[in-house]
Write a structure and sequence with these properties.
By secondary structure, this protein is an alpha/beta fold. 35% of the residues lie in helices and 14% in strands. It has one domain: Metal-dependent hydrolases (TIM Barrel), CATH 3.20.20. The protein contains 9 helices and 8 strands. Helix 6 links the parallel strand 6 and strand 7. Helix 5 runs parallel beside helix 6 and helix 6 packs parallel to helix 7. The radius of gyration is 17 Å and the shape is globular.
Length: 274
């Protein structure tokens, strides 16, 4: 099964989706499973993991409801207030929906000390008994803080979204490379090769721009802990779905069939227990 491990769906609302700026106006409309379904078929994608884009339990319910009417959605990464004093109660409530495989918080927009907050860490500690994962969404300058964070939870399964958003447009790699390698030393941490088109110069990139970063990730994590994802529809800011899928296929052309199977589906299936 070929799986896209990182896809968003929304019904656009200006207040809810205030993060979508005017330069992102292509995203200011509804993006639903039926919007992408033809492209997924053309690109040989069998299933997707739907990941939250706004921070509310309503968003989690929205994705769960979509999964009930669209078989392509095999897992949901929702949002829950991990700093809530009643986090245990809320996790028990959402455990009635087995399609929910993990959670995410938009840490990239939080203060530098967010991952050190005891209320947040209490919420992370509550995930393991429910066998639920956590997607770490950060910028590359937050990687150092994330290293301390993941070290505190050796039993928790984490995945770094979008390779921690390296500075591809500015060709910055050295510091990011050091921290990504350190992150990969934690066996419970995986990495998504997703969202990189929008870290390059929008629509002015070439495949060669990404290869040094992909080299680092593959060397650090190996093919057992890397997940293919698209970050659709955000990817549309800088390119098309087929361009990203083809770029990764080209990068992997000399890899073994076993490694290709892992990257394009088996790792996501195992990580999210799909």
């Amino acid at each position: 099964m070929t799986i896209d491990s990182h896809m968003h769906f929304w019904q656009y609302q200006e207040i809810k989706d205030e993060w979508i700026t005017e330069e992102m106006k292509i995203l200011k409309k509804d993006y639903l499973p039926e919007t992408i379904a033809p492209s997924l078929r053309r690109n040989g994608i069998d299933a997707v993991v739907a990941v939250q884009a706004s921070q509310s339990e309503l968003e989690t319910h929205f994705l769960v409801e979509l999964s009930r009417t669209h078989d392509m959605i095999r897992g949901v990464v929702g949002w829950i207030d991990l700093q809530n004093d009643n986090i245990q109660e809320r996790l028990e409530y959402f455990s009635r929906y087995p399609i929910i495989r993990g959670w995410r918080h938009l840490i990239q927009g939080e203060p530098d000390d967010f991952m050190k907050r005891e209320a947040f860490r209490r919420g992370i500690r509550a995930l393991h008994p429910f066998d639920q994962t956590f997607d770490i969404l950060i910028y590359h300058h937050q990687l150092k803080a994330a290293l301390d964070f993941v070290a505190a939870f050796p039993e928790q399964q984490f995945v770094i979204d979008h390779c921690a958003k390296p500075g591809i447009a500015e060709k910055k790699i050295d510091e990011w490379k050091i921290h990504i390698r350190e992150m990969a030393r934690h066996p419970g941490v995986y990495c998504k090769i997703s969202g990189l088109l929008t870290e390059a110069k929008w629509k002015e990139w070439s495949p060669a721009d990404f290869y040094p970063y992909l080299d680092v990730v593959f060397e650090a994590f190996g093919t057992d802990r890397i997940l293919f994802g698209s970050d659709w529809p955000v990817i549309l800011l800088s390119g098309m779905y087929v361009q990203w899928k083809s770029l990764i296929e080209k990068y992997m052309e000399n890899a073994s069939e076993d490694d290709k199977v892992k990257l394009f589906g088996a790792n996501a299936e195992r990580f999210y227990t799909l």
